[in-house]
Structure formats: structure tokens, C-alpha cells
Amino acid sequence: MSLWHVFGLEEADDGEKLLFFITGGVLLVVAAVGILSPQRLNNTLNGAFEWVLTYFGWWFMLLGLILFIFSAFMVFSRYGHIRIGGQDAEPEFDLFSWLAMVFTVGYSGSIIIWGVGEPISIVANPPPDPQPVAGVPIESLALSFMFIHEVFPGLAMWYPPFALAFGLIIYTRGTETYKFSSMLKVFLDTDRYTFLYWTVDLAALIAIIGGVAAAIGFSAQVFAALLDTVFGVPATIFTYGLFGILGLVFLGDVWLGLRKGIRNAARITVILMLITFAFLLVVGPTLFTINLGLDAGGVWLNNMFRLSLYSAPTAAANWPQQWTSFWWAWWAAWGLFVGSFVARVSKGRTIRETFVCLVVIPGVLLWIQHSIVGGWVLAPGYIDPVSNALTDGGIPAAVATAVTLTPFGSLLGVLLMLVIAGYVVTSLDSAVYILSSITLGNEDPNARNRAWWGILLSFLGVMTLELPVFDAMQAFPPVLALPFTLFLLAIVYASYISAREHYRENFAISDEETLITAAKTNETPVREHDDD
User: Which residues cross the membrane (predicted)?
Assistant: First the structure.
């Protein structure tokens, strides 16, 4: 058995082998430094984080607006009728499985972790004067920022462009290889740019790892805090054990594949999530939660673009950049693999249907979930102790403290850990699937290469437990995603070209036939598709 076979690279060319080992090597070096010298890595990451958001925070905000406009145009124009995989493509998954996979890969444990962390942090450290929205309670303003960042327009900015790019270029237009660089060949279809293509794929892989690293790290430290505070067990040792068990479950999913492994894990996670949030709404401060959710929803909907573009130019600190720019950077890193995975499971669906599944339905669910979590931790009797825990121990301590204050806290803690575990497994499943696909240029990569990517990512999970400060993990998405943002506008342009060409080839002929038939019968033609 050759070494290439062990790594699942027996059919890979030299560039793909180099891509795997360079990206894996970078990942291992970061993990090793984090384990052996966590304080050094912590200081380096925090320094890089501050630099990127100070000098490029504006870029993430502007790019988000551009991508939002592009998504709206593609969905609501005539191109919304285009079917991913071609007009004759049939859906591969039933509706519930499709929704479950899209939801669990797209939103992870951040619903719980940042659903607690962001609103309580904003109440403790509000925006500088002048306030972005005057005359509203700080609790409602804090929760409305959460809606902006993880409900809308965040959803519409970052996931659809990647999903549409993969769906239109890889599956509808058709390419030889399943890579990010294949998208550039729409307008750079020549062998002269081989090194550029390879560089794009390398930047994409590193950006994906940045987003996944942050999600795993956040989840690992919240796991540890729940075990220590709620159940009083040695946090680090048991967290390693839990991640070991999750690793075995993950490897089982890898061997089962997309249809049996990832699909079933996603369905179970969604059911657990619905049970957990219904339970939290009942045992938590129910009336306050409902009222705050409605009030914050009004602030959010009435000031959506004001809050989305709030940059506080006259303030000395980088408050908006620490929140909005961070979120947009994380969306960019996370959206790379989410969009490509969503396109993979959405073959046979139209662009408009995919938007509904990716943005509209999850948006409603996320608004309800964040209303429940935000109302829980911002309620009288919760807000002060949770805020104090945030100051002393960061977001993991705040989550654990909120659980201890809640009736039936032990049961709630178990449910939250199960939901986070489900998100970790499904996110890892989907991430390694796409990492392996991009490496090998194959939409159905072999299980051996996927398993190696899973092992490499697991080292990051172990490393994050050693980092002394939770905030250090915030640096991964903006620092590692920044280089890839240079290619996003090119990918957007390539998507538009692909949509336009496909429309002309498949829909323009039927429109012309409609006009000819109408002219012969002297009837007013009714077009099936509107113009842009």
C-alpha cells in the first residue's frame, strides 16, 4: 500500500498533493504552538485581530453590502428560476433532510454561545456616544445587534453568494474539477494562470480552517465551563474525553458518507435543538423573553441598515469593528464551506428555493432562538450575575452561570451540551467533506482523505482548550479570511456571467417562441420570466 493511498491521494496530481500537505502543515504548526506555548499564540492572535479590524474593518462592512445587493439581484431577478445542476436536475434529498443539513452546517453552536455572549457584552460595554439608535433600552439595542449579525442581513450577505457561485458554476455550468479556482476559469479559461488557481484554492482552504477553528474552539471552552460550573467535574480531562467520543462519532459519519452519516446527524441535531429551546422558553423568564424579543425585533427591523453600516467614525475605539466587522469576517470564512456544501445538497432546487431554505426559514428560526436566549440572559435576576461572570471568565463562564440560575439547570446543561455536540459533529462532517473535495477536485472525495482532514482539525480542538483567553479564537476568522476576500468579487462576477449564459441558452429561446406565437395569434405575450 503506497503512502498516497494512506492519505487518500492516490489519484491526486502534484499540485493537489502539495495543497494537502502545505495546508495540513500550517494547521499542525498552529496547533503545536497553541499546545506548547498558548500564551505566545494568544498574544499573536490578539495582535493580528486588532490590526485587521482596525485597518480593514471597513472593508468587511463594504463587502457585506456589495454581496447583499448581489444576492438580492440574483434571487429576485429572472435568474432566480435557474435550477442548480441544470433544468432537468431532480432534488436528491427530502425537504426535512435538506433543511436540517443546511441549518446545522450553517449556524453551529454560535446560536447558544454568542446568543449569550454578544447581548450581555453589549449591555456591559454599550456603543460609544452618539448611540446608533437613540431612546431605546440598551437590552433591546443589544439584542437587535444580535439579529443584525446572525439573522438578517448577515444571512443574506454571506451564504447565498457562495452557494450560488458553486451551484451555478460547478453544478449548472459544469467544470472539470470541484475547486474554488474553477470559478475563475469562467473568465480566465487558460493554463497561463495555473499558479493563481492553486493560490486561490490554498487561500480558500486556510480561510475555511479559520472559520472552523473558531467554531470548534468556542464550543470546546463552553463545554469545559458547563462541565466545571454546572456539574462540578474536572473540566479539561472530561472535555478531552467528550471530544474523543465526538471524534469516534465523526469518523463513523465519515465512513457512512453524506446520505447516511451527515444527513442523519443533522436531523438528530435539529430535533435536539427544537426540544432544547422549547424547554428553555418554558423554564426561563418566559414573559420577559417574549416582550424583549418583540421590542428588539422592532428596533432591528426599523433600523436594519443603520445598524448594519454603523462604524462610529468619530469614536476613538473600534467598537463596531469589534462586532460587525468580526461577524462579517467569520461569515466570510464560514461561508466558504457552507455555501459549497449547500450547493452540493441543493442540486435540483432553484436559486429562489435555495434562498428560502438558506435564508428565509433559518432566519425565522434564528430570530426565535436568539429572542429566547437573549431574553433568558438579559432578564432581571439573570443579567447582573451573568454580566459579572462574563467579566471574570468570559463567554463560557457567562453561559455556565446562566444555566445554574435556571430552574432544572442540570437538565438544561445536558441539553445544551448535546446540541453543541451535534453542531460540532455536523460542522466537522461538512467541513472535512468540503476541504477534501477542494483538495482532490472531486465532489465525492474518498473517506480516507476526509478522515485525515478530521484528524487535523481535531488538533485545533485540543489546542483551543489550552488558550488562556476565549477572545483569542475570535482572531482566526478575520486574520485567515482576509486574503481570500480579494477573490470574492471575482467569484461574484463569474456567477453573474454563468447565470446570464445559462439563462440565454435555456430560457431566452422559450421567450422568443412565446413572442412569435403571440404575434401569429395577435395576443399580448405573457413572459414567464421577468427582466432584470
Answer: 18-36, 56-76, 96-117, 156-174, 195-217, 237-258, 270-294, 326-343, 355-379, 451-470, 476-496
Residue 443 DSSP class: S
> Could you identify the residue written with the cell 461577524?
327
Which set of grid coordinates corresponds to residue 417? Answer: 451540551
Instruction: Specify the 3-state DSSP secondary structure of 37.
Output: coil
Task: Supply the pLDDT for residue 404.
Answer: 94
- Residue 416 CB contacts under 8 Å (≥ 6 apart), including other chains: 112, 226, 276, 399, 403
The span from the CA of 441 to the CA of 183, in Å, is: 12
Residue 491: partners with Cβ closer than 8 Å, 6 or more residues away: 161, 162, 165, 180, 183, 184
Q: How many whole angstroms separate alpha carbon 34 and alpha carbon 40? A: 8
- Number of other residues whose CB lies within 10 A of the CB of residue 482: 21
Euclidean distance between CA atoms 114 and 154, whole angstroms: 14
Can you tell me the distance from the alpha carbon of 250 to that of 59, in angstroms, rounded to the nearest whole number? 36
- 20-59: buried (b, 16+ CB within 10 Å) or exposed (e) per residue? beebbebbeebbeebbeebeebbebbeebbeebbeebbeb
The rounded distance, in Å, linking the Cα atoms of 134 and 138 is 10
Residue 93: closest CA among 339, 267, 212 = 267
**CA–CA dist 434, 201 (Å, integer):** 12
Burial class (CB in 10 A: 0-12, 13-18, 19+), 522: exposed
> pTM, whole model, 2 decimals?
0.83
Q: Dihedral (C-alpha) 226, 238, 213, 394: value to the nearest 10 degrees?
A: 30
Are 219 and 426 in contact by the 8 Å Cβ rule? The answer is no
Comparing C-alpha atoms, which of 230, 286, 275, 276 is closest to residue 402?
A: 230
CB atoms within 10 A of CB 94: 10
Total Cβ atoms within 10 A of residue 245: 10
Give the three cell numbers for residue 253. Answer: 459519519
pLDDT of residue 238: 62
Domain 10-506 is in which class?
Answer: mainly alpha
Cα separation of 386 and 403, whole Å?
10
Residues in the chain where the model's pLDDT stays below 70: 1, 106, 108, 176, 189-191, 234-262, 461-473, 508-532
C-alpha cell at 99: 433543511
pLDDT at 69: 93
| Coil, helix or strand at residue 189 | coil
Residue 246 neighbours by CB under 8 Å, 6+ apart: 421, 424, 425
Tally Cβ neighbours within 10 Å of residue 447.
15
In the three-class reduction of DSSP (H, G, I as helix; E, B as strand; rest coil), residue 531 is classed as coil
The answer for residues whose C-beta is within 8 angstroms of residue 263's C-beta and 6 or more apart is 93, 97, 100, 101
Name the region of 187 (left: φ>0; alpha: ψ -120 to 50; beta: rest).
alpha
Question: d(Cα 230, Cα 457) in Å, to the nearest integer?
Answer: 28
Q: Is 83 helix (H, G, I), strand (E, B) or coil?
A: strand
